[in-house]
Amino acid sequence: MNNKTIITVATTGAFPTKEDNPNIPLTPKEIANDVYECWQAGAAIAHLHMRDDQGKGTMNIDKFTETVALIREKCDIVINLTTSGDLNATDETRMMHVAALKPELASYDCGSMNWAHSGLFINYPKFLEQLGQVMIDSGVKPEIEIFDAGMFYNSLYYIKKNLINTPAYYQLVLGAAGGTAATVENLVYLRNLLPPEAHWSAFGIGKGHMPILLATLALGGHVRVGMEDNVYYSKGRLAQSNAEFVSRAVRLADEAGRGTATPAEARQILGLKGAVL
């Protein structure tokens, strides 16, 4: 089972719009229906961002609560909630939904960076300490997002401070403007930094999506797909749905001889609180 590939679908993100791709889900109902289709296609984890009524990224707890409830009515997919869905959010609103909803996973962005050459993505030490403690108190496993090597070394500090439990789960993010470029060489470098017992996944943004997807499968990692990261299925062709991305990842994992993990298997692999032992 440990050789199976966990597929995460990142359905929405904080920035892509209907103008970028009319098929991207934005409302709680759209997101829930989309997640259900992705679960049927083979996704084990859903990474969720929320949008406000104007389509902007938001950390509004009511949107999270409604969306999670709708998904839970439909399927047993592992829920992974963002803690960084709005660059103007407060520390409190970035953590409130984690404590209230207690998802099995939540993102833990392990450092600050320039964002898209236009703003700042701030994750300062006090916030990371508070977020780590909230996750421990709530029984939530951090998905440690790594945009560059410095963030990995930051994670070792919080592990040493017992604010991240081990074995850790890393998500390697390649291709974000202001972060590490989406090349296979960079993926191998970041992957080789990780402790041998760590679990890891990776994805490439935009045109880096396919090279990183293929290389991650070859290296034995888990994968993330979805319109948060890439609204095009192939060059010049918009994705028709997030399930289309999931279906391709399933085919590739099968061709690689690895197969894909069910939500129940993903819980066991990652040691999540919902795992049946």
UniProtKB/TrEMBL annotation:
<dbReference type="Pfam" id="PF05853">
    <property type="entry name" value="BKACE"/>
</dbReference>
<keyword id="KW-0479">Metal-binding</keyword>
<keyword id="KW-0862">Zinc</keyword>
<protein>
    <submittedName>
        <fullName>3-keto-5-aminohexanoate cleavage protein</fullName>
    </submittedName>
</protein>
<keyword id="KW-0808">Transferase</keyword>
<dbReference type="InterPro" id="IPR008567">
    <property type="entry name" value="BKACE"/>
</dbReference>
